[in-house]
Amino acid sequence: MGIMGFLRERMGKILAFFIGFALLAFIVSEVVRSGGSFFRDDSNELAVVNGEKVPYDKFNEKLEQNSAQFKQQGQSISPQIASYLQETTWNQYLSQLLIGKEIEKLGLTVGDDEMNVMIGDNNPDPQIARQFADQQTGQFDRSRYDQFKAYLQSGKADPAQKKAWSDFVIDLIEAKKATKYMTLVTNGLYVNSLEATDDYEAKNKLANFKYVSLDYASIPDAKVTLTDADYSAYYDAHKASFKTPQELRNFEYVSFNAAPSKEDSAAVKQQADKLANEFKTTPNDSLFVQINAETKAPLAYQRKGSLDPKLDTAMFSAAKGFVYGPYLENGSYKIAKLVDTKTTFDSVKTRHILIDLASAGGEEKAKAKADSIKKLIQGGKSFAELATAFSADKGSAVKGGEIPSFDANGSMGGQGNLVPEYYNAAYKANKGDILVVKSQFGYHVIQVEDQKGSVKLVKVGVVDKPLTASSKTQTVAYSKAQAFLASLTPDNFEAEAKKEGLKPRTAEDVTAIASGLPGLDNARDVVRWAYKAEKGDISDKVFTVGDQYIVSRLTEIKPKGTLSLEAVKKQIEPMVRNEVKAKQLKEKFDTALSGGTSIDQVAQKVGSKVVPVENIVFANPIIPGQSAEYKVIGSIFGSAINKISKPVDGAQGVYVYVVNGFTNPPALTNAIKQKEQINQALLQRSQGQVLDALKDNAIVKDNRAKFF
């Protein structure tokens, strides 16, 4: 009774304890399985390098900077470009982190005097010189740099500009430290006289020889049986080459095509035909384009040669209102209309005085100064003298404000392009006019000096309708993919694909941050799935990649480090087969050599021919008509003259040769030049090799796949 009473009283607490314990165990197992922790927040942990965390937000800041620079070049960022930028930024970040640790160990610094030289006025760092180069001459413009520094110190500068400059200077300092570190490493490089002599002879000593070869292709693959011992022997001899610095995965996949059908194309063409009729009669061409075009673009006058070739031919010989199309181009049906034509000057000659906002003390003061200078010019003051005294564009100021002639698009004939505000204003003005125009550089006081020639311009409006798959086409393809997925087991992927008339494609050695696959440009979701799956797993859903529906199966996981024989067995099969063939061909040669006293007799016995070769150098081990044969040429340069060699297995087959003789070059009398050439080659490779060595010795836990 005592025990039963005790249990009745305590049962609630006992059950609560066990339920709580079970829940705790479940949560712990999930945390362990996912690599998380109760005691730390790793949601921002992009990587861990030698025990130091790399925060995602810090890395992403660098990535955004690199992406912004790429966009400034007028390039769009596709999934492939995004992947390239991410990988490039990661390598930069990792290199800086690893070199930074080495710099810290050595105590390398940049002193105040060095810093003053780097950002000084007389001979600043090349990066600063490029940023403040004169647009006309390309030379460092000290006055612009002085004005910028004064602007930063004036208290009127944007905080974002101050931070950007501060970050830039910090990067300069870190780059200088890295240069010092690399200099310490490269100063330890030394080339001795023996190395110089060996290099000279390798490039200049000539070998003349004859050879007989039996190609591996002479034995059909079907007649070669590979054993486990054959694979193991090759693997053990080449194990060092099977080391991988990161985890890789292989998978196979099938795709169900949801690209537009003929019916879809006809439907879009019908829409385009209707739009073409409406485009002909619309009273507002610009509004029609903005409403109906997939690609919105303002209507602008263009000269011959600037349109697509089809339109360029049609529009410059057509009358206003002419409609061309619909025509199919780059996956869209397009309709083009000649909205207007005009004849304007072929080129305009101007000079200008630029008033910089920073040096003038703000926009209002800059505008007032520009207006004042305009009045002085109108009152008879010398434009050239005023330009020399006041223009922030020092490159043109020394020429009285003169800049090269430009066309209607602002092109100065290979000397750069003007900003639109400048050239548009100049083309609308009359000869002799004096204008005040604002651009991103400040206020320009412009005098139109001359307007020459004439050119025809056309204004063309283009409406495009992308050729896309209908919902019916997409539904049919998706349903097939779903049915295929439902039919799969871990062992019937290939068989089911064959039933559907599909050939699985293979993606090998895919990294965790890969974005594309063979035939698929943006397959990031498929890669993410592969890195969560186990070997043999089938994708848990149908992936949409462009106009394809994808079903995948993970076939191999290759962990970081030295890959197992099983992991590389398929990869090394051709080489293993050649080694087995080499044994058979060597036996054939050995039999011929046992009774042959000349290379001609050996060739006759093996059913081949003697091939003479002249003037081969060790540094370029290519046998004419064959590929590079490093082992064979290496053996030749170590052989005696007029002695038939033993069989040597090369890249393409097995060789037997006899050396006729060597032609030695003149003795190396001046090793200094040879040493300099070798040392220069070492210097060019040294930085990359140092970084590779640091990366090889680093312990890196890379979590990028969780973020990208």
TrEMBL record:
<dbReference type="InterPro" id="IPR052029">
    <property type="entry name" value="PpiD_chaperone"/>
</dbReference>
<keyword id="KW-0812">Transmembrane</keyword>
<dbReference type="Pfam" id="PF13623">
    <property type="entry name" value="SurA_N_2"/>
</dbReference>
<keyword id="KW-1133">Transmembrane helix</keyword>
<keyword id="KW-0997">Cell inner membrane</keyword>
<dbReference type="InterPro" id="IPR027304">
    <property type="entry name" value="Trigger_fact/SurA_dom_sf"/>
</dbReference>
<protein>
    <recommendedName>
        <fullName>Periplasmic chaperone PpiD</fullName>
    </recommendedName>
</protein>
<feature type="domain" description="PpiC">
    <location>
        <begin position="345"/>
        <end position="450"/>
    </location>
</feature>
<dbReference type="Pfam" id="PF13616">
    <property type="entry name" value="Rotamase_3"/>
</dbReference>
<keyword id="KW-0143">Chaperone</keyword>
<dbReference type="GO" id="GO:0003755">
    <property type="term" value="F:peptidyl-prolyl cis-trans isomerase activity"/>
</dbReference>
<keyword id="KW-0472">Membrane</keyword>
<keyword id="KW-0697">Rotamase</keyword>
<dbReference type="Pfam" id="PF13145">
    <property type="entry name" value="Rotamase_2"/>
</dbReference>
<keyword id="KW-0413">Isomerase</keyword>
<comment type="similarity">
    <text>Belongs to the PpiD chaperone family.</text>
</comment>
<keyword id="KW-1003">Cell membrane</keyword>
<dbReference type="GO" id="GO:0005886">
    <property type="term" value="C:plasma membrane"/>
</dbReference>
<dbReference type="InterPro" id="IPR000297">
    <property type="entry name" value="PPIase_PpiC"/>
</dbReference>
<dbReference type="InterPro" id="IPR046357">
    <property type="entry name" value="PPIase_dom_sf"/>
</dbReference>
